[in-house]
From TrEMBL:
Catalytic activity: 2 5-aminolevulinate = porphobilinogen + 2 H2O + H(+)
GO biological process, one term: heme biosynthetic process
Secreted in keyword set: no
Keywords: Heme biosynthesis, Lyase, Porphyrin biosynthesis
Subunit structure: Homooctamer.
Name the record gives this protein: Delta-aminolevulinic acid dehydratase
Family the UniProt entry places it in: Belongs to the ALAD family.
Native source species: Pseudooceanicola nanhaiensis
Organism lineage string: Bacteria, Pseudomonadati, Pseudomonadota, Alphaproteobacteria, Rhodobacterales
Amino acid sequence: MTPLHAPFPLTRFRRARQSPAIRALAQENTLGTGDLIWPVFVREGDGVAQEEIASMPGVYRRTVDAVAEAAREAADLGIGAICLFPYTPMEKRTRDCAEAWNPENLSNRATRAIKRAVPDMAVMTDVALDPYNIDGHDGFVVDGEILNDETVEALVRQTLSQAEAGADIIGPSDMMDGRIGAMRQALESQGHRNVMILSYSAKYASAFYGPFRDAVGAAGALKGDKATYQMNPGNSDEALRLVARDLSEGADMVMVKPGMPYLDICRRVKDQFGVPTFAYQVSGEYAMIRAAALNGWIDGDRAMAESLLCFKRAGCDGILTYFAPEMARALGA
Ligand code: PBG
């Protein structure tokens, strides 16, 4: 749809830009606090509640108690969903990754604590083995190979333990094949009919995850890269095939990750499928904006707001972002 325009001067585009009120009227896309999912890092211990992540200034690892407190504050700001990532103590990381489905693991305790403190907060949990794996990989590693089918069985166990703990949205970030169908079937058969799956369908093997791996303590452990399971950044059609596959296996919502370098993928997914589509503004994107702002090289508040609004323009229904509380405050909640 390309509308015809009368020639200049009958048409003057600047008329629609002449004042804040008129610009607001002509604005096509908007960002609201309801569009934001806040990723939060959980750690053991009590006492000092917060530990700042060196490569992500302004982002903290929080104890379970502090996560519940943060959820209360987020709810007051109008944020409706929190996504949990555990910083598993090193001694609990093993080759069999059993901590991933321990009902008392950090993620499950934090889920219950949030649900007690703020029952209306939607809790999303991450399904992948990397925070529990001695190898730092999302799946089991045998002789240097990341096993698919054996990993899927473990992911199903992890999914059920998260659903038991009260998670509303399960977020598989592992990129194994066949996981969505297996997880959906298990959830149905175990009475978790309303638990949603937000699939990390198009997750790329990206350099922009670096600060996250520091945050969950997986950076040191990781041997090699994740290129045999995460997507090649050169691919676009493949993202559509992955989304189609995940929807056919029972995903409710899909995600593109990272965000800003992949807005073209967001747009294609939304146009093609029209399903709830999310982008993850990942740790490296956050770090770049924050670092440049702290150096005085860009206006951090404006860069944050612009980067998030542009996800909406690209077709996303919502965004996972470490800026969530700050953005919510800026939106005047
Ligand atoms: C791993 C996982 C990663 C992120 C979310 N889940 C990192 C990875 O794949 O290595 C990245 C999030 C971020 O960078 O903010 N299952």
